[in-house]
Design a protein that fits this description.
Layout (H helix, E strand, L loop, with lengths): L14 H19 L7 H19 L4 H26 L10 H26 L6 H17 L6 H17 L5 H24 L2
Helix pairs in contact: 2-3, 2-7, 4-5, 5-6, 6-7
């Protein structure tokens, strides 16, 4: 009499393996829904103050090109301050700078800023210095608004405020351009930086 082969179910996963899978799923879901909160309000405040100084220095220049060079130097100063302030706020929590919310924040921020860099080179090559303030304000505002979707809720409002200032710069008299840059990169950073520092702990 021929025996029938007995089909056996594969061995179920062990309890610790299922628990590990569940933990990975929960961690992934939490990262996807969380926001990047290590934006430094104090850093924004300092950037704002440096931009006010840049506006005063640029206003004292004898040519439009020289004033633009002052603002480009301010860009280097502002980026350095922003990076150092973010690292300081994230101290003892370095892994958060590599987590999904931080990566999404950078992904929202980087493409508009890269586009702004390309436009800056092109406009300078063509001698269209009067268009640069509006471009800088609008592009920076778009970058902040996009990155703000993955960060503290007030950042998109900051981005739209920059875009509004940039739109005004395109239609305002050329003499206003430097002061609109000071209002945007100086005043807006100071006001919103103070709010972020108070609400989100520095």
């Amino acid at each position: 009499m021929q025996r029938r082969a007995i089909d056996r179910d594969p061995e179920p996963p062990r309890l610790h393996e299922r628990a590990a899978d569940n933990l990975r799923f929960i961690r992934s879901a939490m990262e996807s829904s969380s926001r990047f909160t290590d934006v430094s309000g104090i850093g924004m405040l300092i950037i704002g103050v440096s931009a006010v100084v840049a506006a005063l220095v640029a206003a004292a220049q004898s040519s439009e090109r020289a004033a633009i060079l002052v603002w480009e130097a301010e860009l280097v100063v502002a980026v350095t301050i922003g990076l150092l302030a973010t690292l300081h706020k994230a101290r003892d929590r370095w892994q958060r700078l590599l987590a999904a919310p931080a990566r999404k924040f950078v992904l929202g921020l980087a493409p508009p800023l890269a586009a702004g860099g390309v436009l800056t080179v092109v406009l300078q090559r063509e001698g269209l210095f009067d268009l640069l303030p509006g471009v800088w304000l609008v592009v920076y505002g778009a970058a902040i608004a996009a990155a703000g979707a993955f960060s503290v809720r007030i950042l998109p409002a900051l981005g739209f405020s920059f875009m509004a200032a940039g739109s005004i710069a395109f239609v305002a008299p050329t003499a206003w351009a430097g002061w609109l840059l000071g209002l945007g990169f100086g005043g807006l950073h100071i006001v919103f930086g103070a709010i972020i520092a108070r609400r989100y702990g520095g």
